[in-house]
Amino acid sequence: QVQLVESGGGLVQAGGSLRLSCVVSGNIFRIHDMGWYRQPPGKQRDMVAVITSGGNTRYVDSVKARFTITRDNAKNTLYLQMNSLKPEDTAVYYCNADVTTRQALRPTYRYWGQGTQVTVSS
Length: 122
Fold this sequence. Notes:
Layout: E1 2-7, E2 10-13, E3 18-26, E4 28-39, E5 46-51, E6 57-59, E7 67-72, E8 77-82, E9 91-101, E10 108-112, E11 116-121
Parallel strand pairs: 2-11
Antiparallel strand pairs: 1-3, 3-8, 4-5, 4-9, 5-6, 7-8, 9-10, 9-11
């Protein structure tokens, strides 16, 4: 079993910053791509940023130059630094990770965290 636990969400004024963290733990053999997604109220969940095991990154256009995704492979931790936050960034933020487990045949699954609320006031 693999668990992802996010932290760092909260209420912030427009223009402020937050740093989200996501710790991956459990029966891990290898972690591949990791990512942050968000789901605004009443809308679908969409990709915010992804990072490969080698450190290559990709962002949705609306957060480029404001958000930075990083990972610490030694700590199995994913981060999202969010600067210049806007009210439209308000959403539940979820992390995910593609993990090869230590089970026989080394299966790979995509796991999700439980989400952390980010609210940006105007």
